[in-house]
Amino acid sequence: MLQFRRIALSIAGSLALASPAFAGKLAIVIDDFGYRPQTENQVLAMPATISVAVLPNAPHAREMATKAHNAGHEVLIHLPMAPLSKQPLEKDTLRPEMSQEEVARIIQDAVTKVPFAVGLNNHMGSAMTSSLPGMEKVMQALSRYNLYFLDSMTIGNSQAMRAASGTGVKVIKRKVFLDDTQNEADIRVQFNRAIQLARRNGSAIAIGHPHPSTVRVLQQMLYNLPPDITLVRPSSLLNEPQIDTSTPNTAPPKAVPPTPPRNPFRGVSLCKPKQKLQPVYATHFFTVLSESISQSTLLQYYQQQWQGWNKKA
Ligand SMILES: [Zn+2]
């Protein structure tokens, strides 16, 4: 009898352990931490599986990273990277033409300003992440730290995964942006998309921002998750299968003269501006980008599907 009970308990135990493997794993990261402590504190009051990404040069960077860590949240460095479009730029925004030493200095500085970080993701960065030479410098610098790279996927043809190969740096990718608009109904739709993708693919990473509307939606939806969805930290997804959908973009980066920037990529999400505009010198990146995109219309279509830009996906 005792033996039977032991066996029954052991079966029950292994079932309990096994069940999460069948669930869709959902990781949520809230970016742009360090500027709005009041809203950010509301994020930190949510389940500890919600992770946060801190801008290293934000006024409350160290304070919020420390608070997040103490409350059990996973902390990432939210590293500013140059966008293609005209955006206000944070101090020390990584640009493809920077030297290896400059990139390494900026990453080292970020590591000291965002204590407890275990990963790093890009703030904006469509110009930087689409440059293979640029991202190779980032991965080279990152390989000195035990930091994973969460690709925010602000552009379809990101070179992050390609650049990381052989460096030992683990790369994972964002699937859904929760709050391209700050309309609660839209955010709920995006949250449900993330759930569906987690279910379909086994896991999904969603990125949001510390907007009051995002916080309200999370406060409602996190506590009413479907039973087959498990909230996880991004670091628990580092060994999930990853597919690199990029095409090589090896054009050497170089400084280009200033021209009026433009942004042909409607629907691509970028973190919201906080300051007045400064020009971004973007001509070269458009050339590189249009070349890479024109390589294959079909490929581009699949990239967009994969990134979930097509709302029907
Ligand atoms: Zn951001």
From TrEMBL:
<feature type="compositionally biased region" description="Pro residues">
    <location>
        <begin position="250"/>
        <end position="263"/>
    </location>
</feature>
<protein>
    <recommendedName>
        <fullName>Divergent polysaccharide deacetylase family protein</fullName>
    </recommendedName>
</protein>
<dbReference type="InterPro" id="IPR011330">
    <property type="entry name" value="Glyco_hydro/deAcase_b/a-brl"/>
</dbReference>
<dbReference type="Pfam" id="PF04748">
    <property type="entry name" value="Polysacc_deac_2"/>
</dbReference>
<keyword id="KW-0732">Signal</keyword>
<dbReference type="InterPro" id="IPR006837">
    <property type="entry name" value="Divergent_DAC"/>
</dbReference>
<feature type="signal peptide">
    <location>
        <begin position="1"/>
        <end position="23"/>
    </location>
</feature>
<feature type="region of interest" description="Disordered">
    <location>
        <begin position="239"/>
        <end position="264"/>
    </location>
</feature>
